[in-house]
């Protein structure tokens, strides 16, 4: 478990003598100023993945809004989470519980804040594409999932708001300390006219505000450990979740270059079905922490990865009907209909054993209709 990714009990002090307690106050003050900025009053869209960084941003934004007179709280804030429909079930349960608490608290705090979950298009979910259309389990060379499961649902939500309001500001929990590539990406993009906002590179009309970009991982954990969230309770469940999952997270993803952790070993809060990684570390972490009900999911994922390259499960032709070769080697087509049936049967067995929904009835119906279309073509 990398030390930099874990909740830390070590107290952090800044060069100027401030400690973590003051740091939250500083962030809240910055956010309050930004919220009240007269130059722009576009809605804020806060990407909330349930991970530590976006939790801290959410915590600070709600605190900042509570410190503003009600009549000046005119900017809408949308808290947006994405559910790929194959999220790690434990992480999803945690995210839903925070969303429920938030909704309840927002009711009596009377803040102009909404809580939303985006999802992939029903015809583009992981199971509909893999079992319905036979897309081979994703790998590094054919990562068909990130765009459809993560980027498109959130991007559509943002672009909707851009077209309604002329622009929208994405409030993100990204930090330079996350990785070298994150630091380079943050430092590469220039702020707009002396503001704290950077234009998004692939979403026209979207601007990015990063209120915690200079914090270290230890700073984040320290603040979360020391301050109860304004929606009630503590951050203890989040800290425990990271301990059990052994670290990393999958932030809200808005473009491919912002998804360095998606489908890599550094991301342990991604989809439970992720076959891009060699070994799933989050579910295995939960099993190792005593949550044995996740073992069938770990076994299923490993099996899905294994059968990917077995020629008996792949069509000879590609989906376009052609037989293709690359560098003299045959390029297999999608999973055969028999293999897709086998995957669905096994998934339903795992679902039965696990005792909770892993594939929805809507997805099963969609899969059957795709099969019918293919067989009657
Ligand atoms: S976590 Fe894995 S399966 Fe999920 S979108 Fe990322 S690469 Fe694809």
From TrEMBL:
Domain named Phosphoadenosine phosphosulphate reductase: which ranges? 46-275
Q: Mention any Pfam family matching this sequence.
A: PAPS_reduct
Out of the domains of life, which is the source? Answer: Bacteria
Query: InterPro entries recorded for this chain?
Result: PAPS_reduct_dom (IPR002500), Rossmann-like_a/b/a_fold (IPR014729), Sulfate_adenylyltrnsfr_sub2 (IPR050128), SulphurTrfase_DndC (IPR017598)
- Which PANTHER family does this entry report, sorted A to Z? PHOSPHOADENOSINE PHOSPHOSULFATE REDUCTASE (PTHR43196:SF2), SULFATE ADENYLYLTRANSFERASE SUBUNIT 2 (PTHR43196)
Q: What is the protein name given in its UniProt record? A: Phosphoadenosine phosphosulphate reductase domain-containing protein
Organism of origin is Allochromatium tepidum
């Amino acid at each position: 478990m990398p030390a930099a990714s874990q909740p830390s009990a070590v107290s952090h002090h800044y060069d100027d003598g401030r400690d973590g307690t003051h740091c939250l106050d500083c962030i809240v003050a910055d956010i309050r100023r930004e919220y009240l900025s007269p130059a722009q009053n576009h809605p804020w869209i806060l990407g909330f993945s349930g991970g530590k960084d976006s939790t801290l941003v959410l915590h600070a934004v709600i605190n900042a809004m509570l410190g503003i007179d009600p009549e000046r709280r005119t900017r809408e804030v949308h808290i947006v989470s994405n559910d790929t429909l194959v999220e790690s079930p434990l992480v999803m349960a945690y995210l839903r519980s925070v969303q429920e608490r938030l909704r309840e608290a927002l009711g009596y705090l009377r803040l102009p804040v909404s809580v939303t979950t985006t999802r992939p298009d029903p015809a583009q979910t992981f199971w509909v594409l893999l079992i319905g259309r036979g897309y081979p389990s994703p790998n590094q060379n054919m990562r068909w999932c990130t765009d459809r499961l993560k980027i498109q649902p959130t991007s559509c939500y943002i672009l909707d708001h851009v077209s309604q309001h002329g622009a929208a500001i994405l409030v993100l929990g990204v930090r330079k300390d996350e990785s070298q590539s994150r630091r380079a990406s943050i430092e590469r993009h220039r702020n707009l006219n002396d503001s704290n906002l950077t234009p998004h590179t692939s979403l026209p009309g979207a601007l990015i505000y990063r209120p915690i970009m200079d914090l270290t991982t230890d700073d984040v954990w320290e603040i979360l450990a020391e301050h109860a969230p304004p929606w009630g309770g503590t951050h203890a469940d989040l800290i425990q979740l990271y301990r059990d999952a052994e670290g990393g997270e999958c932030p809200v993803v808005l473009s491919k270059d912002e998804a360095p952790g998606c489908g890599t070993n550094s991301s342990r809060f991604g989809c439970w079905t992720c076959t891009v990684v060699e070994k799933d570390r989050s579910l295995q972490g939960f099993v190792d922490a005593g949550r044995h009900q996740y073992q069938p999911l770990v076994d299923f994922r490993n099996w899905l990865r294994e059968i990917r390259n077995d020629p008996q499960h792949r069509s000879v032709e590609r989906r376009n009907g052609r037989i293709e070769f690359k560098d003299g080697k045959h390029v297999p087509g999608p999973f055969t209909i028999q293999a897709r049936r086998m995957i669905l049967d096994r998934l339903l067995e795992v679902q039965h054993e696990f005792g909770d929904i892993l594939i929805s009835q809507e997805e099963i119906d969609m899969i059957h209709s795709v099969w019918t279309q293919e067989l009657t073509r």
